[in-house]
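Dear colleague,

Following up on Tuesday's group meeting, I ran the structure prediction for the two-component complex that the binding team flagged. I've pasted the input sequences exactly as they went in, so you can double-check that nothing got truncated or mislabelled along the way. The structure tokens for the whole assembly follow below. Feel free to forward this to whoever is handling the docking comparison.

Inputs:
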Amino acid sequence: MNSKRGDRAIYATAGDSVKRLDLIYQKFLDFGLGKKISASELAEMLGLSRANVSSDLNKLWKAGKIEKADGRPTLFYTKQTNETLYNTETALDRLAKGNKSLLTPIEQAKAAVLYPPRGMHCLILGETGVGKSGFAGLIHEFSIDIGRLDKDAPFVVFNCADYANNPQLLYSQLFGVKKGAYTGAENDRRGLVEKADGGILFLDEVHRLPAEGQEIFFTFMDKGTFRRVGETEVERTAQVQIISATTENPESSLLKTFIRRIPMVIKLPSLVERGMEERFGILINIFREEAFRLGREIQISASAIHAFLSYHCPNNIGQLKTDIQLTCASAYADFISLKKKQLQVSVQDLPHHVKQGLLLAKERKAALEELVGKEHKSFVVQPTQDSISIERETEDTANSVYEKIEQKIQELRNQGVSEEELEFDIENYFTRFIKGVNKRINKEDMSRIIDPIIVNLVEEIVRYAEARLGKILSQKVIFGLALHIQTSKERLAHGKQIINPHINSVRIKYKKEFAVALECVRMIEEAILMDLPIDEAGYLTMFFVLDDESLQQERETVGVLVITHGSGGATAMVDVTNRLLVTDYAKAIDLPLEEEYMKVLEQAIKLAREVGSAAGLLLLVDMGSLLGFGEIIEKEVGIPVMVIPMVSTPHVIEATRKAMLGHTLEDVYRDVSSLSSLTVLQNEEQPKQEPAQELAPALAIVAACLSGEGSALFLKRMLENRLRYDNQLVEIIPLQLIDKAQARNQLKQIKNERKVLCIVSNYMLDKDLRCYGMDDVLNGEALQDIQQMIDLEEAFMKMVETLGEHLTMVDSRRVLGDVRACMGRMEERLHNVLVFDTRIGAYLHVCCLIDRLKAGLPTVDYAEKESFLAENRRLYSIVRHELQLIEDQYEISIREDDVCFIMNFFLHNKTLV
Amino acid sequence: MNILLCCNAGMSTSLLVKKMEQAANDKGLEAKIWAVSADEVSRHIDQADVLLLGPQVRYKLTEMKKEGEARGIPVDVISTVDYGTLNGNNVLEFALRLKK
């Protein structure tokens, strides 16, 4: 305890002396240039003892800060203008900024340096990685900054641990060796102590200095004298300030002697002791160093910052630095591999143990937010700028908002938010809301359920959205929206998260709607006085978007038609059903016994056209003879039909209810049939098990339906009927769209195995593939297009075969592929898509041309080439340019004449005469 | 039977010519089949019984039809698929049908 108190006393004096020095120098600066003053005058002015002032003045003079005039009493003056004490900011002062916890160590260090006559040896204590070596380096810099050491004064670093097992070697390293001192010492050699003469020797891990030789060291520290190993007579001197450092507990026996000899013990705080604010500064600084190293700005997400501020980092700044470097390396890899457009550090880049910091971060969320700032979503560290710029979220830079959204989802995932919590598959969610609302709840019910504030709010939102989007939202969307907002509010009030896992794709797909939704989120926030997550915008977007689609879906619900014998039977059942469900959804045909079969059928077909849809029609009948109706209606109307025999009122109710909710024909059929214990007809829509083909066709058309496999199958059949194709080459694949992610995966797999010509679906599944809406296919508009694609592909496949027989010099498959790609580029650049006829001709032509040139055969001259070229300069240059690749690939040279013929394909690109 | 084919530069049509000759041979049909570029048609048309255009020179059909009608020679465009797949047999039959 004694020694400890003693240290403190020394520190206090030393600290005071520094402050006094500052005071005196500041006084000089206040005087301005040239004012001369004696020590006693100054002492009186400042109320200090003359001896102290005199000593300080000499120190300042030695440091070159003030000038001495000749004569007695000695007068001092300054040449400096009014700046800080040390004309530039010193290394230690820079460190002091923003590092309050280091103020004491810094003051101690300054005192140690300034302590007369040549500074004071000191010992730096601190855990691994707190920055002891760095601090010693700063002391060295500081000594130079203030002129206490020469500009080129040495700073020698020695790690005692390196030689701990070999004391002899250690001492020879430190103090040098006399020639012949031991075997192998063939020359006189200087030690580190001599090398450090006039500067600083930094002894790291000083506790590893072997005890038996410590005395020699202490002698040097006390007197500045030493001997090289093997020397006896000569006593050498060196002026060295020794800074030693250790991680050991200063109470340990080894260090006790040491500390007794070293008056200045500087304790550097651990990272935890530094506190969050400083940690923030430290980590930003490290990031800045990395930015500088990489020569680019680094963007760091707020969550990543939170993690770095919070994680358990036992090895202090050293570890923090390593972890940040690792993180930057990972982010940089993504950046280089073009996964990211910017050098961004987000949570997924962090090493696992750093990510865990987010768990701790939750506990001190408030403190973190206060420090980092709630509104800051990310930080940008520039490689050059001294201060970090903080990127603020702005309303108009929509892009950065999107990026943040993306990051947020990722980060939430990484925070361990489970997929269950990231609940609601967006499609299902919406289908449920929108469809359900319209059918089940009427307006009066609505106002009973929904908070009037929200009803008003929704009206406001609808007005705004309609104006911005230039369309009218349907009544049911409005109700759905109201219900949704109400639910969201309740969820938030219960502290549940609202997360929209599809938010990123939503905002990409529906940019305009998303922008509107963002504004609506703000409106909602104002109205319900709650902060909404950005995910909400994703949901709102879907309401605006789905309005169009939902109208179509409405038509796509399964129709329900009841036909029974006997007057009034069907009507009675349907009336009950419709009354109960408050709808007029179900339809009925009564079949009086005397009615003609054909007449009833006609009526049924007519009604089926009205109530049926692409989703199909459920026919509920009472007796055998009507079972055949299903097949006939299916053929006549062109929609899938399923028949439930032995109908009863409960069947009709169940069927109608399910159909209205948008269940697929299969689902409705299954549920309704399960009501009855009677055997039902064989499910006609079951896909027949196709015999496994040895080789699947190379081409595919994907028919995708939201409402289930049945309608996809139906679509497939319709396409099969209406398209001409070779089923060795082309297959039409039905795809169920209930789970979009799954559908995408399936599609991806199909794409891997074969070439997908196009998709028939109302949903954009893959932007690379051509997609036809179901409407366009059903009304035949798209069929011609699809047919042409099939023809082209078929011709193309056959061309490979035929060309293969004829081309002598090149592989037909390869050349056709290359030509196709080449022509494709021309088409793109010329904005001139070749019609089918021209295209086939052009492919063949160019393939043959290549083969011919490759064989060294002559090609035809183009008549009136010059005038033709003069008229079509731009065309020529584009075609020529794109042919370059072919020329290179096949090592041929295509003549101008040849180019002219190719140009003709584009000039006369017409289908009809 | 003389069948004249007209295409852009006679590049790919020559392949079709070979295929058609083969098909004619198989049928035991005596036929002269040759291909020229559109510019050269006027010099060859008098020797032909039928003139077939490649799909890529379909735009010449009106012009060629005039020339053909003047001489009583049928003129038409080869089916794109047959052309693309170099189906010599189909094209030959097409020519024969035209002639009748």
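The longest strand of chain B covers residues 2-7.

Cheers,
M.
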